[in-house]
Specification:
This protein is of the alpha+beta class. The protein is built from four helices and nine strands; from the N terminus they run ααβββββαββββα.
Length: 195
């Protein structure tokens, strides 16, 4: 009886070892590597000192040189580049709808979402009036005082399905850094919008 139990345990250990070795030896795609990095990455927060807005970005993105009121973070490998950017625009006295319609036209937006004091635009990425093959953008615009605060992402289309965390980060963005909630057990942990 003991011999059967030891044999059974040995077979399980060998099977698990073979499965683990096989999983480690599989070649992963760039998208799978990016998804794994994004899933486990700590999110850092950048705070702009000029306009006092904050955006979050994954720890494995590198900060690029930027100007006043602008922050840019980038991930690049051989086949893909993902860029997160935060910046401000002057409102120029337009209503929310006028600003959305104007920016949607300029940015060639194919999808739009309107909220109270904000809108989201997305579509193919253009540069100097020409589309960049295989790249799209996703941007949230929040009105505050006489400015639009923007948090945008430019990404390769084939990475769309692995960027869920960053899409949610942009959707939930509120301009200022999020307070670190001190919750009691059982309290709702969903951040409340300030709108």
């Amino acid at each position: 009886m003991r011999r059967a139990i030891f044999t059974f345990i040995a077979i399980i250990i060998v099977a698990v070892s073979i499965d683990w070795i096989d999983a480690c030896s599989e070649e992963r795609t760039d998208e799978e590597i990016f998804k794994r990095n994004l899933t486990f990455a700590e999110m850092y927060e950048y705070k702009d000192s000029t306009y006092d807005f904050a955006i979050r970005y994954p720890s494995f993105f590198s900060q690029q040189p930027n100007g006043t009121g602008r922050a840019r973070f980038c991930y690049a490998d051989q086949w893909a580049t993902v860029v997160l950017e935060g910046y401000t625009l002057s409102n120029q006295g337009m209503s929310d709808k006028e600003a959305k319609d104007s920016l949607a036209h300029i940015l060639h937006a194919t999808k739009q979402k309107q909220g109270k004091y904000y809108f989201i635009l997305s579509g193919p990425q253009y540069e100097d009036g020409s589309p960049i093959e295989g790249y799209s953008y996703y941007a949230k615009f929040i009105r505050h005082d006489n400015r639009w605060f923007v948090y945008s992402m430019v990404y390769p289309d084939h990475y769309h399905d692995v960027l869920t965390r960053l899409f949610k980060e942009i959707d939930d963005w509120l301009i200022w850094e999020r307070p670190h909630l001190q919750l009691k057990q059982g309290e709702d942990q969903t951040p409340k919008d300030s709108f």
